[in-house]
Amino acid sequence: MKKVLMLLSNPFKPDPRVYKEAKSLVKAGFHVKILCWDRTLDYPEKEIIDGINVERIRVKSGYGFKNMIFNLPFFWAKLLFRTLFTDFDFIHTHDFDTVIIGFLIKILKRKIWFYDSHDLYFTFFIKNCKENMTAKIMLKLDIYFAKVCDKLLVATQTIVTGREGQKEFYINYDIKEEKIQVLWNVPEIREFLNYKKLNLKKSSKFTIGFIGGQRTVENFLILFESVKDQKNKYKILFVGEGKDSLLIKRIIEEKYNYLDIEFIKNVDYKLIPNYYMICDCIFCVYKSKKETVCDQNEKKAIQTKVFESAALGIPSIVPEYNLSGDFVRKYGCGVVITELKPSEIKFALERVINSNFSPNEIRSQWNWENESHKLVDTYRSYDG
Predict the structure, then answer these.
(1) Which of 54-63, 100-109, 146-155 has the lowest mean pLDDT?
(2) 75 and 157 share one domain
(3) Helices first, then strands: H and E counts in the chain
């Protein structure tokens, strides 16, 4: 039994992409251990989840850039020490936060290294379309690590001709195409459709859902402005918590307390379909078109909730500027808006009310079963 060590900078509560990958490998006969970061000290130090051995490294920290600068090195030190004294055949680093450890282990222990790039990390340092020195350094490091790892895993590629995904981004920086494997963030269809029913009551109002942590504010303020004159027609449902949840709640209390808005705290991923099913559409817009001109990460992304809602037959409202727009146009599973402003949202809501599509084609192509085979085959190609 070959052993896989995954490294992760969140507490694995669990992280959907990491969870699906680890489960796929366990099912295929690999032994999988995840070393991850518990910043709040709220999780068990050790547990087994669906055959996955999870060990959490406790380094207290908040979130955000300043916390990362001061506390990430302490996590790295503990992570490197733990990794050096762990027995494994493959090291699989998730995102840029743990990539340095994968690089060091490849050199020190000569292990096969998979770099799983969920996002283009350097973009988080670009402000107002200005590429500062930090962003340039992060980009160069990312490209270097992508070149020296054994396999680069990414989340997106072109859906229709014209708009590039992560795969094309790395190819443009001379990463060989055969080195890159795309694993889309799509749902496990069987599990997603056969979920444990909570018998939630659906509102009589047209319900606009947002599934996931709230990490932005402006997009929701524009949504509130869009429905403020039709409070008896619409309900807004937030499922999950993020860094801006408290701020959004405070703004609602001060300015929009007459709207029908409900917040549900973090929900077990296995129960998430229950909340999709009480929504009439899913809101998947984060930034305005103007803000994304220089945002490579946004332009090359497609939100997981777009795949999930489409698989359940629920339309979504998505932006034109990224791969979500290409996907929704191709399958007719929602409405694409060109700009984040109230008039666009109002128009989109009127159109999405009347949208009708069959999810069967989407389920057959965009499912984790297909991605799982790709992942396992990739691992077995190194399993000599």
Answers:
(1) 54-63
(2) yes
(3) 15, 14
Distance CA 36, CA 189 (A): 27
Domain that holds residue 266: 190-364
* 355 and 371, same domain (yes or no): no
| 222 plus 121 within the same structural domain | no
- Tokens representing 170 are 């790395």
The two tokens of residue 155 are 């989340």
CA distances from 367 to 188, 307, 311, 362, 375 (A): 6, 9, 9, 8, 13
- Average of per-residue pLDDT across 216-221: 94
Structure tokens at 314: 């629920």
Decide: 320 and 283 in contact? Cβ < 8 Å. Answer: no
Going from the C-alpha of 5 to that of each of 38, 76, 371, the distances in angstroms are 17, 15, 20
CA distances from 114 to 109, 120, 149 (A): 14, 16, 6
On whether both 210 and 139 belong to a single domain, the answer is no
What's the token pair of residue 180? Answer: 């890159």
**What is the per-residue pLDDT across 143-189, written as a single tens digit (0 to 9) for each?**
999 999 999 999 999 998 778 999 999 999 999 999 999 999 999 99
Per-residue confidence (pLDDT) for residue 293, from 0 to 100 = 55
Please check whether residues 179 and 228 belong to one and the same domain. no
Total domain count, the chain = 2
CATH code, domain with 284: 3.40.50.2000
363: three-class secondary structure by DSSP: helix
Coil, strand or helix at 220: helix
Partners of residue 261 on adjacent β-strands: 236
User: Regarding beta strands 31-38 and 151-154, do their DSSP bridges make them parallel or antiparallel, or are they unpaired?
Assistant: unpaired
**What is the pLDDT at residue 127?**
74
Ramachandran area for residue 64 (φ above 0: left; ψ -120 to 50: alpha; else beta): left
Closest CA to 265 of 213, 209, 199: 213
H or E segment and range at residue 166: helix 166-171
Copy the structure tokens of residue 158.
């072109």
